[in-house]
Amino acid sequence: MAGHSKWANIKHRKAGADKKRGLMFSKCAKELMVSSRLGGMDPASNNRLRIAIAKARAVNMPRDTIERSIKKGAGELGSQNYEEFLYEVYAAGGIGMLVEGLTDKLSRTTPEIKSILNKANAALAESNAVKRLFHYQGYIAIDKGALDEENLMELVLDAGADDLRTDSEQYEIYTPIETYAQVSEALSDREIEFIESGLRFMPMEGTDVTVVDADQARKILALIDKLEEHEDVQSVYTNMTIPDDILANLE
User: pTM of the predicted model, to two decimals?
Assistant: First the structure.
């Protein structure tokens, strides 16, 4: 999930994070392999790989696992080819969703995703019908206790961030795609842990859809969970927002 604090707070199921650690490593490994296959093994000259490494480190992926994935993608340890996909989805209530992933067999993945959507009263949308509601950028969330706001602002802006926002619990850092990796590295060098980090499709201002019905919100969240659990799905994005009181009841 992605977005400013309202969207980020929707990802409230932290208790299951460790159970999904293996799945997260698998998703990061795929991205590392694709990045090194397309642009080479040197992150200095392959910005996509540099970003993939930053994302892998953000979920505490072991260094040797990262290195093996890079070598495998480059063909040094055998190879496996993955194809990128981005499904545009309309869910119940006019909620827009983007489902991003990597697969070694699109003819298997597409019907599986369609089946998940059909069971949730959702469907694939026409090309650019949903994507046009989002823009792509770097996003990093960290705990407010990690650093005081003034020093954090100086650190991330010097590293290339666009904006720093704050709420009661966390800082949210927004970056251009080109500087996401160096901002992430600047924070990692200070041993600052991430709540969430990566390149994200973020809903454009004024395109969000507020869901005030708890049952509908619960069903959309269940659909997001189901999609994220699919081995070929890397990320799911939505323009749904849930008011704090409704979200608190869901939690």
Answer: 0.79
